[in-house]
């Protein structure tokens, strides 16, 4: 009785942890690919278009300041001032800054408009593919299955209903996708088996194992327990990592702009701040351009 009770409890913990992890992966993907794009579009329509022009002006001023600095360094070193080389270096720095900003923005996606039925189907298929083929929870996947899983993520990222359906069919009713053939035996579930598994999960989770959890530390763990506990530790580590990712996404753009978008006074206050920054850029740009002209003249006169 002892063995079966604790085994049932540990198995139930595994099931619960796995289901929780699947839910977190789905939540992260939904934030990135479903909720962020329309929120970003709303922000761009309200604030973002003007903000982008101001940010571009500030970057230009920053690059002009950098150009003046590079010219001054050349003069101090008594080296020739090669404006073509300096301009090329400035453009490379600017391109790298823009690239880094875009790469850091994980929510930068343009999505099609889906019907309610299409969205429901896409979410369901994504859930089932994540549960059955996420590499972090299914280490024994074939290379073909891993590749199809990545393609499914890409389809979800772009809200591509047709591509997701094709990948879903290939994973759950496999065909020969390459030399690495997916046979029916390699697919973990068909529709009937999934329904039965979910029914068994629900039955297991309805059992109260609180007493087993309290008593387990007082018994000598069995060898079989170690494997299950190791899996639990792995799921816990993965769960914490995904929770941190989710928190980071929610703390970043565009989710950190919701309070401003929902408050008209704060929106107007920020737009006024942008207008002040734009005016400051105009003044600074003129000053730095005059400085650069004086430095170039100084270099030319030796």
Description:
The chain has 302 residues and is an all-alpha fold. It has a domain at 2-112 and 225-300. Helices cover 77% and strands 0% of the residues. It has 10 helices and no strands. Helix 1 packs antiparallel against helix 2 (83-104), helix 1 runs parallel beside helix 8 and helix 4 (143-157) packs antiparallel against helix 5 (161-172). It is elongated, with a radius of gyration of 28 Å. Residues 175-189 and 201-207 have low confidence and may be disordered.
Query: What's the alpha carbon Rg, rounded to whole Å?
Result: 28 Å
Tell me roughly what share of residues is in helical segments.
Answer: over 70%
Low-confidence stretches: 175-189, 201-207
How would a textbook summarize the main sheet?
none
Number of strands: 0
Derived from helix and strand composition plus strand pairing, the structural class reads: mainly alpha
Note the beta-strand portion: under 5%
Specify the overall morphology: elongated
Task: Report how far apart the termini are.
Answer: 95 Å
Q: How confident overall, as mean pLDDT?
A: 80
Order of helices and strands: HHHHHHHHHH
- Distinct helical segment count: 10
């Amino acid at each position: 009785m002892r063995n079966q009770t604790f085994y049932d409890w540990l198995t139930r913990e595994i099931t619960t942890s796995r289901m929780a992890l699947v839910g977190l992966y789905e939540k992260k993907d939904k934030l990135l690919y479903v909720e962020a794009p329309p929120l970003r579009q709303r922000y761009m329509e309200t604030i973002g278009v003007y903000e982008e022009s101001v940010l571009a002006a500030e970057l230009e001023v920053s690059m002009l300041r950098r150009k003046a600095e590079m010219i001054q360094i050349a003069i101090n070193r008594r080296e020739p001032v090669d404006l073509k080389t300096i301009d090329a270096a400035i453009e490379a720095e600017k391109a790298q800054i823009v690239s880094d900003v875009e790469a850091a923005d994980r929510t930068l996606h343009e999505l099609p408009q889906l019907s309610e039925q299409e969205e429901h189907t896409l979410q369901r298929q994504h859930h089932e593919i994540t549960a059955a083929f996420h590499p972090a929870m299914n280490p024994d996947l074939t290379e073909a299955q891993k590749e199809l899983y990545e393609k499914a993520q890409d389809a979800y990222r772009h809200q591509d209903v047709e591509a997701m359906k094709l990948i879903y069919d290939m994973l759950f009713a496999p065909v020969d996708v390459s030399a690495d053939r997916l046979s029916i035996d390699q697919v973990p579930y068909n529709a009937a088996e999934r329904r039965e598994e979910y029914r068994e999960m629900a039955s297991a989770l309805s059992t109260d194992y609180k007493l087993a959890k309290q008593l387990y530390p007082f018994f000598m763990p069995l060898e079989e327990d170690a494997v299950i506990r190791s899996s639990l530790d792995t799921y816990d580590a993965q769960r914490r990592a995904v929770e941190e990712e989710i928190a980071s996404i929610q703390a970043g753009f565009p989710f950190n702009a919701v309070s401003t978008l929902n408050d008209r006074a704060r929106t107007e206050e920020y737009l006024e701040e942008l207008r002040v920054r734009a005016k400051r850029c105009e003044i600074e740009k003129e000053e730095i351009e005059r400085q650069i002209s004086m430095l170039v003249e100084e270099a030319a006169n030796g």
